[in-house]
Q: What sequence folds into this?
């Protein structure tokens, strides 16, 4: 398999998931501004959306959309516990988290990274993010991970997006359960491996 990624982008979520699942894969770096593949080639030919992540399977089939990709990854190694079994109510709760992270966290961060977003809108986006973090903080009370005691692909995704608070200088101190959770996830050996491989940490 090949994972098309950009350092520190949302593709870190499937990257962590692939390592947590113990699957073998190659990393293909993409320049999101120029839409060039670092080793050569037009990324839009791989994904006409021009966005990472893309997971290219050994069959040549390509999967896009982070929440779909991480469920595919988890399902390749059911024993990893990265996702509850398909069809169970727990699996729907996992999808509930993935959808929340993608639509309520990820996409509220996006305008903060755009140079043409009006400053007044950035204030609104930050306020919305604060409300979402307050919700997550409440749900993490007394829990190790979003789904309970076990790390799942929802944690890989939540960690990846919440880590952007560092770039955006959003202080997580008002949400101590999230602060502890981020340290817990950051300390996982496969998370460290993924972050090193992307050049995010030494
Ligand atoms: N809906 C997509 C969104 C992916 C996405 O936002 N990717 C960003 C990086 S975090 C990207 O590639 N942006 C480049 C662009 O929008 O041109 C998903 O969930 O996978």
A:
């Amino acid at each position: 398999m090949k994972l098309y990624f950009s350092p520190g982008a949302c593709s870190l979520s499937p990257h962590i998931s692939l390592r947590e699942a113990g699957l073998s894969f190659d990393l293909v770096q993409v320049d999101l501004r120029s839409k060039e593949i670092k080793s050569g080639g037009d990324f839009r030919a791989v994904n006409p959306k021009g966005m990472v992540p893309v997971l290219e399977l050994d069959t040549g089939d390509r999967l896009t959309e982070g929440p779909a990709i991480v469920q595919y990854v988890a399902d390749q190694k059911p024993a990893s516990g990265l996702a509850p079994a398909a069809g169970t109510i727990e699996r729907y709760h996992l999808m509930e988290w993935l959808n929340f992270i993608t639509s309520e966290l990820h996409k509220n961060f996006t305008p903060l990274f755009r140079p043409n977003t009006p400053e007044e809108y950035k204030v609104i986006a930050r306020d919305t993010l604060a409300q979402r973090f307050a919700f997550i903080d409440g749900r993490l009370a007394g829990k190790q991970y979003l789904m309970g005691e076990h790390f799942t692909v929802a944690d890989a995704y939540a960690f990846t997006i919440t880590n952007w608070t560092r770039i955006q200088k959003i202080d997580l101190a008002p949400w101590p359960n999230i602060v502890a959770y981020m340290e817990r996830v950051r300390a996982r050996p496969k998370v460290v491996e993924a972050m090193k491989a992307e050049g995010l940490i030494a």
